[in-house]
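Hi R.,

Here are the chain sequences for the assembly we discussed:
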Amino acid sequence: MPRAATLSDVAQRAGVHQATASRALNPASRHLVNRATAERVLAAARELGYVPNAIARGLRTSRSGTVGVIIPDLMNPLFPPIVRGIEDVLAREGYTALLANTDNDEQRERALFESLVTRRVDGFIVATARRNHPLLDEAARHGLNVVLVYRGTDRTDFCAVTADDRLGIALATEHLLQIGHRRIGHLAGPQDLYTGSIRANSFAETLRSHQLSVPPEHIVVCDAYSETAGVAGTRRLLDQAPDLTAIVAANDLIALGACDVLRERGLRCPDQISVTGFNDMPFADKFDPPLTTVRVPHYDLGAEAGRLLLDQLTRPGPHLTKRLSLPPALITRGSTAPPPQ
Amino acid sequence: MPRAATLSDVAQRAGVHQATASRALNPASRHLVNRATAERVLAAARELGYVPNAIARGLRTSRSGTVGVIIPDLMNPLFPPIVRGIEDVLAREGYTALLANTDNDEQRERALFESLVTRRVDGFIVATARRNHPLLDEAARHGLNVVLVYRGTDRTDFCAVTADDRLGIALATEHLLQIGHRRIGHLAGPQDLYTGSIRANSFAETLRSHQLSVPPEHIVVCDAYSETAGVAGTRRLLDQAPDLTAIVAANDLIALGACDVLRERGLRCPDQISVTGFNDMPFADKFDPPLTTVRVPHYDLGAEAGRLLLDQLTRPGPHLTKRLSLPPALITRGSTAPPPQ
DNA sequence: CTTAAGTTTGCAATCGATTGTTGAATCACC
DNA sequence: GGTGATTCAACAATCGATTGCAAACTTAAG
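And here is the predicted structure of the full complex:
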């Protein structure tokens, strides 16, 4: 197996200096070399099957052409579309994403972050933000390029692309109000997450704006955005507020957990209790019952985050911290119905 | 913003030559340097917040510490677990995965492959294999490290980790036979894929081994492993064989498409027609009806593929081409029942 | 005190590209 | 033919690590 051809192999074959070969091969600097020469170089490269070495280039230019993407867990159905959105946009500009799953473990996140810094990624797209996040503070101090996606922070000096969670929960809650519910509970997400806190706030606000009180026992905070956390939360919620006719869950997985508990307690959904989710995860329409939920344009969230980061990377100098919010939409399905009687 | 500390910054601060610093920092060569000196170097590195530059190291060692992972589409729920399995194993050894989504497009695949070669990945894990696959032939010719996952090829000289698809379909088919079905159809996957062809073969074999004939109109080949392809295939199947009492689908998405068509035609599943899937995709238990399917250990498939590749990368010289097959399991749920009457 | 073996460290080349600077060649024009 | 402008290509430094080899030093044995 002959080792891969290098730039000077190409130069040699074309009878030029490697500097000339380099300029000929790079479209941006090709105009610096004679047309005929350039073509000779291109031909030589083709004949040798030359593949440029991104590592060598990266060392010289100190740009790796890679981006670190930090998510909690790829197996959470929420994230694949976001990741695809990011990758599609980045790939178009020749960038590659390096994926890191933190599993919500701070240790792990630190280690992965370090490994991405070692690899000299040109920037980060972060979907694991907590409302305040030491690692992000550190990244900001070091002047790294960071774009937040899906989850925001309390700091407002990061570029971010999020869904309008406030509007989303308002849509779900008003839908329930409109079909006649008055005793509505909320299964909130973790309150150290922006999404968890903003959704809970929006839920309460919406009720109040309809002159309804929000008794504390109608809100239960779940430990995580997971089905099992949803199960635990729902048990607690139903124990302390058995007369609810509807539940607004902070996301689809929690809603799924709620449905499990309803089934376990012999409560029919939506006949006796309605449930709404959030995210419109893939196949939410296939569930039993099909889940009424709030659709979030995950792919676009990712794509826009990618674009924002590319912007930072290609435009030199300091940049505005853009904060983009994308609109959600209520998807009405079978898990909501007017209250009994 | 001071630029990041380099190895010679560390060396300078510790009062040693950068070669010494390099050896002190690398656990594998630390024994070559005096204990006290090594500690001075470590301390200096810590104080400066030194982060090694993987790009420079990669250039020198011609190993990037990255692996290309080629999949059709991350949004297909089948692949996230595989990818996580791969990543978890690789990360433990300091490797990073570069993900590429081909969308089953040969052009795209070629471009992505090239970009991974440019980045000098140390090896490939490929989940997009077709039964014969020019790109893979080429990779083999160039002596690249390749491990196949989930889908095999006709060539048997690649390392591969697959599920025992033959057994899986046999389990599903025998389950239907056992509960009394005799007129069973098969919605096959694309026949240029190993999975598609082996599953179809296994279906027919299983019936024949029970002395049942397999009329050609009982088998329809779908264009893709997707819900829409499943819809189209099912329409065709039911048109040409209206008396079926059960359908073995080549995967869950096709099965989902089948359920759609049954609903559309007013056929109740499982009362009138039973359906089985393949993969046990996430939330298949939540569907309406809950899907009887064949569980494949996707995460382990990925993890084992990662291990196999690491083996190739760390063990020098030529290696055996191991082919690993993992056992599937039948998961009986609500989409199968004895035939009517 | 000499010699040999064993430790520890420094020197310098190297990986494969990019790019600022210099120098040669070409050309036009007076 | 001389001058200046312009085009093109070569030279050589550089990015930040790793590593074979040589040199210096320590230690032990004779």
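The first helix of chain B runs from residue 7 to 14. The two ends of chain B are 79 Å apart (CA to CA).

Let me know if anything looks off.

Best,
T.
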